[in-house]
Amino acid sequence: PQGSEEAKAFVNAFLKRSMPKKNEEAIQDILTRKAVVLEHYPKKKTKPKRKKTKGFTAKQRREMRLFEIEPEQQRYAIFLPLHELWKQYIRDLCHGLKPDAQPHMVQAKLLKADLHGAIVTVTKSKCPSYVGITGIILQEFKHVFKIITKEDKLKVIPKLNNVFSLEIDGFISYIYGSKFQFRASERSAKKFKLKGTIDL
């Protein structure tokens, strides 16, 4: 067994190694308290940066033709089941579209709803050739709707300067395309303000 002096020397040396940031006076002060809390300075681990998965660029999407609908798929009858699913989705979203439902509440929900599968009609337009076109929305982009008509023709209708109407369970809603130039994902978080007059 070690003597008291040897034990004291060992403790002093041990504390100097264990607490390199403490000076001699601070170590002696700790010893007089009869309790020693050893400090530990772990090395900071640098977290590896997570690489973000990059999606396709717009050019790559065009080259791969990701959003193009093949001519043999451009048939109205194929997308009627999609329209039925959309109607059920809207009924669930609006809690059944009951007769006593408040129109402005339904309108507010429709403004944020996904419109893929909805049957829309162009009711007003600065371009007369667009008026009366009716079809199922297949794709919605920021500035255009792609719709398939009953004549199995794929039409690209710009939102700008056009007013669209959609009807479900007797409720008719009007969409002013000029105020609707957002992607479907952006619309869900957008707050639409009620305005007194809306022009084309």
Automatic annotation (TrEMBL):
Do you know which SMART domains this protein is assigned to? Answer: POP4
Q: Where in the cell is it found?
A: Nucleus, Nucleolus
Q: What is its main location?
A: nucleus
Q: Which gene encodes it?
A: Pop4
The protein in question is named Ribonuclease P protein subunit p29
List, alphabetically, the Pfam families matched.
RNase_P-MRP_p29 (PF01868)
Which UniProt keywords are given for this protein, alphabetically ordered?
Nucleus, Phosphoprotein, tRNA processing
Q: Which organism is it from?
A: Atlantisia rogersi (Inaccessible Island rail)
The reply on keyword Coiled coil is no
Function, as annotated: Component of ribonuclease P, a ribonucleoprotein complex that generates mature tRNA molecules by cleaving their 5'-ends.
Per its UniProt record, what InterPro entries does this chain match? RNase_P/MRP_Rpp29-subunit (IPR016848), RNase_P/MRP_Rpp29_sf (IPR036980), Rof/RNase_P-like (IPR023534), Rpp29/RNP1 (IPR002730)
UniProt record, GO biological process:
rRNA processing; tRNA 5'-leader removal
Q: Which stretch is the leader sequence? A: none
Cellular component terms, GO, for this chain's entry?
nucleolus; ribonuclease MRP complex; ribonuclease P complex
GO MF term list: ribonuclease P RNA binding
Q: How does it assemble?
A: Component of nuclear RNase P and RNase MRP ribonucleoproteins. RNase P consists of a catalytic RNA moiety and 10 different protein chains; POP1, POP4, POP5, POP7, RPP14, RPP21, RPP25, RPP30, RPP38 and RPP40. Within the RNase P complex, POP1, POP7 and RPP25 form the 'finger' subcomplex, POP5, RPP14, RPP40 and homodimeric RPP30 form the 'palm' subcomplex, and RPP21, POP4 and RPP38 form the 'wrist' subcomplex. All subunits of the RNase P complex interact with the catalytic RNA. Several subunits of RNase P are also part of the RNase MRP complex.
| Residue ranges of coiled coil | none
PANTHER family, per the entry: RIBONUCLEASE P PROTEIN SUBUNIT P29, RIBONUCLEASE P SUBUNIT P29
Family to which this protein belongs: Belongs to the eukaryotic/archaeal RNase P protein component 1 family.
